[in-house]
Every structure is written in structure tokens, then in C-alpha cells.
Amino acid sequence: MQDRRSFINLFVRGSFLTGLAFLSGALILRKKEGEFCGLDFGCNRCDKSESCNLPEASLYRETVWQLDPAKCIQCGRCATSCVMTPSAVKCTHVYAMCGYCDLCGGYLKPDTKNISTAAENQLCPTNAIKRKFVEEPFFEYEIDEALCIGCGKCVKGCSAFGNGSLQLQVRHNRCQNCNQCSIARVCPSDAYSRVPASKPYLLKGIEQDSTTAPKINLGEKGV
Amino acid sequence: MKPKIFIIGAVVLLLLVVGFMIKDLFIDSPGNVNPYAFDLNSLRKGDTSQCMYSEDQQIKPAGSEIHGISTDASGNIYISGKDTLEKLDSTGKVAWIKAYPGNAECIHVDEKGNIFLGMEDHIELLDANGTKKAAWNSPSAEAVLTSIATSGKDVFVADAGNKLVYRYDYLGNIELKIGQKDPSTGVPGFIIPSPYFDLAMDPDGSLWVANTGRHELEKYTREGKLISSWGKASMEVKGFCGCCNPSHFAIFPGGFVTAEKAIERVKIYDMKGNFVCLVALPESFEEGTKGLDLAIGAQNAILVLDPVKNLVRKFIPKKKES
User: Of A9, A112, B29, B106, which cross-links B118 as Cys (Cβ 3.0–4.6 Å)?
Assistant: First the structure.
């Protein structure tokens, strides 16, 4: 009796494992033939995404993720939830809207005693905003994209105390265009959506055509 | 027995793992604070010990979109806005309401009861009953007229679009442009980043203008000569916050009443620019409120036009505790 029970146990386990192996193999083979993408792989990791006919792949090719500054509440999650480190979301400066303020709410901490470039006065945790004197009383603020982590603190300060010329945007030289954006999944204001790749930015305050990228430091790869 | 214990143990372990995953995915623990969260709410909490005024009355105007407020020598209240003009007595009782097409961004009533309306890019002059007498030519296509004040035969008008103050005569002719940058006379020029640009007459006949981008009030002669200025950029209660403040101000015996945006607050300064007290704390207003126009009512009550709540709010000094 003991031998028969062991035999049945082994037979059931063996059958289960064999079935699992067949199922996995079938799914992988099916994907390779391009009939069905049953695995939850992002198109950005697939070397056939350019020729793939699946709807997910065409969506991946024709659209990109972008956040709408009008919906953004600057919660800080763009800095912590992106699969890229640092985040693919960066602060973008719309100079056409900027007041070139001396007391810049995006640059200075609210409790700043003296208006200066001293580190303790700066709101940005990574010192990514450069302040330059233009002429009395105007100052220009430039984003160093290599340092920006997309936390949005400056955006919140600028929106609260200024004209809202600092805005967060997904920078497509860094974005992996994941099928499911990990920031969009946790964004509390549903600010993320897919937009046409031909018009990849959603900036407030300026008109853009398909070839216009925001005037910022594009980093090593460019757009 | 042994296999049973093993199965029960495995199930418990599985449940623990699932529970941990659920907690990790869906429940924010108190210690899991976003390091980049920027809380501005603390700035909106004013110091009540510095507030010497209390709200005495709320007046609901007839118009659904209000922009400007002014008072006459008798304490009557005039409110302008979109398509509506109204006059109330000093207690808030309606004297008349008129449909007045257009967007009257600012209003001023002179000593004789003439009503001046800033219709975005031009001035319209009305008699004391609200009947239109004249419409003056627009000073320029870029004009955004935001404030009007009168003194004798002069009408001063602030233009945020061109960053200038015009001195008109009563016929609508521009006699002088005030505030053009001129280092030789020390006039710094007006810095107006947003369309809030207020002015008012000093009891001595000179003109005060809010140079909001510099966070200052500047005093000019009727000839446009800069006499003095005061004001400091700061988030602290004694200074003016944001990109461009004070957005509005009024002069009353012994000082200035100022209103700010960004941190919505109404304050009093003495004639030298020293902070005296708060009239209304930031939490008195909806977050993001802009355009708190001011007027001085009967018995020096401070009238604040709240365009978000669509109210005229009357503030009076707190009674001293005996």
C-alpha cells in the first residue's frame, strides 16, 4: 500500500509539473509567433515592438506618457515612483510666463530671512535651480536637468506665489515609455495620460508645434 | 498529525504573506512620509494675536461676478463687476442696481459723486445715478486698467498692461504718464508681473502707487516725481509675499490697509510703513483667492471685496476686553 501511495503522489506531481511546463512553453512560443502577447512584458523591453502588430505595441509607438500641469498637485510622487533613478519627470521652465521675480517662490524657501543664493535658502533639495541676475530687480531661473529629480517642490512654490511658470513634464530623453507608467498608477490627481508622440509636451502658457520642445537643458541624449 | 501541522503552518504563513502584501500595496503607514511633499498650509495659518479686527457683516451683492469696490463721502458702497453696477448704503441696503454691459474691473467715486469705471481698456464716466456720461478713448491696445483715483481736477488711472499711471483731466485727455523708468530722476519703473496694480490718493494730495513687483508702495507728486517708498519682500507678516504684492490697498486716517494674494491676508500699516496689525487672516479666505479689492466704509470700517465667495466683507476693530 505504501508503494502504491507513493507512486500516485509522484504521478500527480509529475503530471502537474509537466502540464505547467507545456503551458509555459505554449505561451512563450505563441508570443514568438506574434499571434498573442500573453506575458505582461512592457514593449520597451521587447526587441520586436517596432514590427509588432498588437494594439499595445502601436499605442507604445504612437503615444508617450505626459502629465498635465493643470491637474498636477505636486505631491512629490513623480520623484519616488518612476522606474528611472532619478525620475524621468523634470521641472520645465516656461520663460514666457515667468515674472523673473527676486522673491521667487519656486527658488526660495518660504521662511527665508534673506533673499540670497545661500544653500539654506534654496527650496530645491538638489540645488537644481540656478539663479542669475538680469537687471534690477529681475532674476532668471534655469533648471539644471541633470540635478532635477522631479520632486515638484519648486513647481508648488511657483504656483502658490508666482505665475506658475515652473511645471513638471515627463522628459522623453529619459522616459522608458512603459506600457503601464508606474507614476501614473499612483498619481492622486490622474494627471498622467498618453499623448501623441508628435506632440509630446503639455505645457501651460505657451503654444507648441510638433517640433517644439521646452527650452531646457536636454541632457546627454537630447530629445 | 505532523502533515496536518505542516499544512496549517503553511496556510498561516501564506495568509501572513498575503496580508503583508496588501498592507504594503494599499495602506500608507504613518512613517512612510513622502520626503518631497511640500506643505504650504502652515503659511496659511495667521497669528490670531496680531489680528485686531473682526468680521462684522457680510454683504451679498446682486452681481454674480464682482471686481471693484469704492465708497463715497457719505459711506455709500459702490460695487462693479461683470454686467452689473450697484449702489448700497453704508449698512449694505440696496440703493439701486443697474445692468451695465461689460466687465468693470475697477470703480471709483469722486467727491461730487461721479462714478468712474475701468472697463478693462478704457474709462467710462457715469453720473451719481449710474447714467453713462462719457467713454474715454483707450490709452493703448495693451491697456489693462486696474485702479482709478481722483484729486481735484486730476484723474489718476493705473494701467497694468503698460505698467504706467496716467494722469487724465476730466475730459479724458492724458496729461502725464507717471512711472516710466528714469534713472536721472530716480524713478525705478513699475514692475507688474500680474494684472494687479493699485493706486490711491494721500490726504496731502500726493499719489500712492503699489509697485507690486518690488513689493513696495511708492509716493509720487502729481507731476510724477518720486517722493518716497516703503515695503519689503518677505513671507513674514510684516512684508509682502509672492511675486507681486500688495495686490490692493487703501488709505484711511493714520495708515494703509493692504491686501495680498498667494498668502491671502489683509493688514494695516502706519503712514511710515510700519506693520500695525492684521485685519483678516489667511484662513478667512478660500485658498487661491485673488483680487481682494479694498475700500474704507463709514466709521473707518474696512470693506473687503471677496470675489471668490462673492461677498463684500466688513471688518471693524475688535472691542477691547474690559
Answer: B106
* Domain definitions of chain A by residue range: 59-94+146-196
**B213: closest chain A residue by CA:** A101
Sequence ranges of the domains in chain B: 1-29, 45-317
- Minimal CA–CA distance to B53: which of B239, B234, B300? B300
Q: List pLDDT tens digits, range B45-84.
A: 888 999 999 999 999 999 999 999 999 999 999 999 999 9
Q: Round to whole Å and give the CA distance between A190 and B145.
A: 38
Mind listing the pLDDT tens digit of every residue in chain B (322 residues)? 577 888 899 999 999 999 988 887 777 665 567 788 888 888 888 889 999 999 999 999 999 999 999 999 999 999 999 999 999 999 999 999 999 999 999 999 999 999 999 999 999 999 999 999 999 999 999 999 999 999 999 999 999 999 999 999 999 999 999 999 988 888 999 999 889 999 999 999 999 999 999 999 999 999 999 999 999 988 889 999 988 999 999 999 989 999 999 899 999 999 999 999 999 999 999 998 999 999 999 999 999 999 999 999 999 999 876 5
- Burial of B212: CB neighbours in 10 Å, binned 0-12, 13-18, 19+: buried
Residue A84, CA distances (Å) to A178, B59, B251 in order: 11, 54, 55
Beta bridge partners, B57, equal B314
Q: Are B198 and B146 in contact (CB under 8 A)?
A: yes
Which residue in chain B has the smallest CA separation from A98? B193
Task: Kindly list the distances between the CA atom of residue B150 and the CA atoms of B72, B88, B109, in Å, as whole numbers in the listed order.
Answer: 12, 21, 8
CATH top class, domain B45-317: mainly beta
Interval A89-129: pLDDT, tens? 999 999 999 989 888 999 999 888 888 899 999 999 999 99
Residues of B in Cβ contact (< 8 Å) with A80: 34-36
d(C-alpha B157, C-alpha B149), whole Å:
7
Closest CA to B148 of B131, B130, B126, B133: B126
A contact test, residue of B34, B36, B191 with most A CBs within 10 A:
B36
The nearest CA of chain B is from the CA of A77 a distance in Å of: 7
The neighbouring-strand residues paired with B167 are B156, B176
What is d(CA B241, CA B260) in angstroms, rounded to the nearest whole number? 7
This prediction has a pTM of 0.78
Identity of the residue in B37, B215, B234 whose CB atom sits nearest the CB atom of A76: B37
**pLDDT tens digits along B119-154:** 999 999 999 999 999 999 999 999 999 999 999 999
Residues A141 and A129: their CA atoms lie apart, in Å, by 6
Q: H helices within chain B, ranges in order?
A: 2-26
